[in-house]
Structures are given as C-alpha cells and as structure tokens.
C-alpha cells in the first residue's frame, strides 16, 4: 500500500501536541513517494523537533501513531495506582476471610476487576502480594505509634508509652494482626523475612531512638540498643503470641509491668 509522507516545511510549526516537541523516536520507515525520498524498508528514521521545527519528512501514520501511543501510555500510568490498590484491597479481604492457602489469585483478580498477569506485574507472586500486605500493616502500626508518642516525657516513661501504643494497636487491630501472625509463621520465606525486617526497621525504630537518647543523656546505662529494644518488644510479643496461638486471655497490664521491671534495670547504678 502506498503511503504519502507528510512533508513539513521548516518554517511551519509541527502539527502535533507540544508534549511531543522533544520526542526522539526510532520508527521503521515505510517507502516514501518518490525515488529521491525512498529509504530502504526497515531503516530507522530519527524524529527530532527542535525549537518548533521538523527536519525530516515523516509518514503521517507515524505521527498519528506517536500521538496515540503517548496518550495510551499516560492513560495506563494514571490507572496504575488504582489497579494496584484494587488488587491490594481484594487480597486483604480474601486472605482475611479464607486464609492464605485457600485463596486463589484468580479470585483476587476477579474481585479486583483485573487479571492475574497484573498481580504478577505489581507483586511478583502470591507470596509477594501477601508480603506487601504484611509490610503495609506493620507500616501503619509504626506510624500510629510514632504519631502518639510524647517526647517531652522522661525516657523511661517514653518507653512505657511506646509499649502502651504497641499493645493498644494490637488490641484495636487484633483480628487482622492475628491472621497475619498465623499465616506468616506458617509460610516462612518472603513473608517471614518481610515481617521480621519491617518489625525491626519500622515498628521498633521509635523505641531504638528513645533508648539511644536515654543512654546519651545518662538516663540509661550504656548498653547494646538493639538487644535492649528486642528485650522490650520480646516481652510484649510473648504475651501476644500466647494469646494468638494458645488462647491465653490477654491482660494488657501484665506485659507492661514486666517492661517496667526491665526498664528499671537499665537505669545507672542498678546492679
């Protein structure tokens, strides 16, 4: 089929949107109208618009294709957060209702009005999707704790306040956190790594900061900050896990009393 090229004089502004002004694309050239203009099929043609001028003659189909491709790309990019959010919400709902093993990616995709390949595109795998949910839940927990801390209190009281927020968040979100704990401990792998990393890097970070500031100010004896922080969170997690996996009634005051006892031992002069 013969396609007539669109020859644009260098004195005429380009007939396509300004957003394409700086496009330099590589297109597969189609045969031009005259032998003098003829280029071998398959030869790349560079398009470069500089200061409102076009330096080559380009088949109009190429210009139209470039405009449509650019528009389509923008549309896809604008839809990406929405699609990802729908997948995330659907997965959280299905995992909460049925558990990890009993949930199929097909169900998540149908509920999210998308396809399984889009799940793989955003999250890599079913386990990666679950790991993303774990990261989000723990990230929300870290932000909630950090937002409610009063840094004007003495450091020992700040540690207790941190623990109160930690336990309060668990009680407020017990159903979903209990689900995450059961699934993560059963899955291991990526989800367990995500859980451990996020718990240490985000949820525990405010406690690390409080302990560091307390040691720097002489309110606590110098010690390994990571070990001390793990001891404090370990006390709380022991009671949480006993409740989730063993059905032990949860009494918020019991872990807090043990943390107070531990923190008292961090003060200078305490043997």
Key terms for this structure?
mainly alpha, 10 helices, 62% helix, three-stranded antiparallel beta sheet, 3 domains, elongated, 271 residues, 5 strands, Tetracycline Repressor, domain 2, Arc Repressor Mutant, subunit A, two-stranded antiparallel sheet
Top CATH class of the largest domain:
Mainly Alpha
Overall pLDDT score: 76
Measured on Cα atoms, how large is the radius of gyration?
Answer: 30 Å
CATH homologous superfamily designation of the largest domain: Tetracycline Repressor, domain 2
- The helical percent reads 55-70%
Number of helices: 10
> Structural class of the helices, strands and pairings?
mainly alpha
Strand proportion, as a percent range, falls in: 5-15%
The strand count comes to 5
The largest sheet has its strands arranged as 2-3-4
Describe the global form: elongated
N to C succession of SSEs: EEEEEHHHHHHHHHH
Give the N-terminus to C-terminus distance in angstroms: 93 Å
Structure description:
There is one protein chain. This protein is mainly alpha-helical and 271 residues long. The protein has 3 domains: 5-69, no CATH class; 80-123, Homeodomain-like (Arc Repressor Mutant, subunit A, Orthogonal Bundle), CATH 1.10.10.60; 126-264, Tetracycline Repressor, domain 2, CATH 1.10.357.10. The chain is 62% helix and 7% strand. The protein contains 10 helices and 5 strands. The strands form 2 sheets. Strands 2-3-4 form a 3-stranded antiparallel beta sheet, with no helix packed on it. Strands 1-5 form a two-stranded antiparallel sheet. The model is unreliable at 4-73 (pLDDT under 50).
């Amino acid at each position: 089929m013969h396609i007539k090229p669109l020859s644009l004089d260098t004195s005429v502004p380009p007939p396509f949107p300004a957003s394409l002004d700086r496009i330099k694309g590589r297109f597969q050239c189609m045969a031009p109208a005259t032998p003098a203009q003829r280029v071998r099929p398959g030869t790349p043609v560079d398009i470069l618009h500089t200061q409102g001028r076009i330096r080559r003659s380009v088949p109009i189909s190429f210009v139209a294709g470039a405009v449509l491709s650019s528009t389509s790309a923008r549309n896809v990019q604008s839809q990406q957060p929405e699609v990802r959010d729908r997948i995330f919400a659907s997965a959280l709902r299905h995992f909460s209702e049925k558990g990890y093993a009993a949930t199929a990616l097909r169900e998540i995709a149908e509920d999210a009005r998308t396809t399984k390949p889009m799940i793989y595109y955003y999250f890599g795998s079913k386990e990666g999707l679950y790991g993303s949910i774990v990261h989000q839940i723990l990230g929300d927990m870290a932000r909630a704790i950090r937002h409610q801390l009063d840094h004007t209190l003495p450091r020992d009281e700040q540690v207790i306040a941190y623990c109160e927020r930690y336990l309060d968040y668990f009680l407020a979100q017990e159903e979903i956190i209990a689900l995450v704990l059961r699934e993560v401990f059963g899955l291991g792998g990526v989800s367990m790594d995500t859980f451990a990393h996020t718990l240490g890097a985000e949820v525990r970070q405010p406690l690390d900061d409080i302990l560091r500031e307390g040691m720097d100010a002489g309110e606590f004896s110098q010690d390994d900050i990571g070990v001390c922080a793990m001891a404090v969170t370990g006390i709380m997690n022991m009671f949480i896990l006993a409740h989730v996996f063993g059905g032990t009634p949860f009494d918020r005051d019991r872990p807090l009393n043990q943390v107070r006892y531990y923190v008292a031992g961090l003060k200078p002069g305490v043997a």
